[in-house]
Amino acid sequence: MIEVETLTKQFGSKIAVNNLSFTVKKGEVLGFLGPNGAGKSTTMRMITGFIPPTSGDAKLCGISMVDRPAEAKTKIGYLPESAPLYNEMTVTGFLKFCASIRGLTGTAKNDAVERAIETCFLNSVALQSIDTLSKGYRHRTCLAQALLHDPEVLILDEPTDGLDPNQKFEVRQLIKRLGQTKAILFSTHILEEVEASCTRAVIVDRGVIVADGTPSELLAQSGTGSLTDLFRAVTSSDTEAAA
Amino acid sequence: MSSCTIYKRELSSYFSQPTAYAIIVIFLSLSMGLAFSFGKFMSIGDASLEWTFFFWQPWIYMLLAPAVGMKLWADEQRTGTIELLGTFPVSTWSCILGKFFAAATVWLVALLLTFPIVITVNYLGNPDNGAILAGYIGSFLVCCTFLAITMLVSACTRDQVVCLIVSVAICVTMVLCGYDDFTRELGKAASPGAVEAVVSMGVWDHFSSLNQGLLRLQDLVWFASFIFVCLLGTSAILSSKRA
Q: Does B5 sit within 8 Å of A86, measured CB to CB?
């Protein structure tokens, strides 16, 4: 479903993502781990077609994002890192806008919006203006936007960032449930999340994959049975990088 | 189709916030106020709108048009919603056109609301209504030109204030270039060729003939190509920013 082939991104002389390759199959939830600045968001932005790669390609359901971006983009639901929204719109208005831009019309559009509102527990704020929402609701509104067209691929950049423990739990359950029928790639710093909802995880550091496996394989690899130890062993902290 | 969706969203965003109303009220007060004070609409005893009414419009647009257009891309970049737009299956051009026409529609509404002065001049005398229509077309084209410039500047920055200041500066220059008093002063210092070059960059050359009721192809081509080049530049800047 998601095939990332030797994806590289260079900003000036700095290589943000270096020859990254991995695949996510249908029914798989891939956790994308790594320290801040490891190239996680850049990779996701290239897969979603927001920025073009310097070299390499990402294929969504076999469609190349480099050659046929318009078609490939229809396969993806994307939650950007900061959950950006049009603040002056209402939740329903925003979701209807996103549905129309995805080519949905009439009852199909209304059904999709209703379904997304229910899936993301937005009923109580559906008619509220977005700028009055708390962070948790904003995040879920943006997540709802990614689910509208029932995409085969979901790319979620830190979907649980800034949520309270209850909300985190709900979102993890949601990811797990959706992962049964879709290919999901999500990035996170929170290592427990990997055990809670991923079927596989990769750890990237400075644009390169440094560990790849199922949560249990990674735990075995760590030697101590702690993902934190493995994470610290294979990645470099930014203080080291500066030194 | 998708530019239509963008157009509707932008337009409703103008009218769901005070922006459009503030602009329309200020524009109407200024254009009517100037017509009846400095324009000497009553005392001049001329049944036309050329000098009393249309003459003042470029001066108002150079300050107010950027206020309508400044948010178009600057706000998308500041809030990060550009990442949503960039990953939706829509082309940059549909976004540019949708946004441009939405801003132009706000101005069209403002301009149409000046209709009482047309009724008044028809009541008081026998004006050439064809010339008045040409004046309206010219006025709207000047406004669209300024909007296109603002859009170009807006793509360069995420700060609306910077966008406003820079666009106003460019629009003021374009109004001054070709304004008689200004070119006369310039003629003392520069060669006739240079003066002619500066005048051709100004709006008066093209606006005045329309204002006199002359619908010349060369003026329409000038406005259309100026707007097109600005939109083309916007598209180029937006794609280069993502690379």
A: no
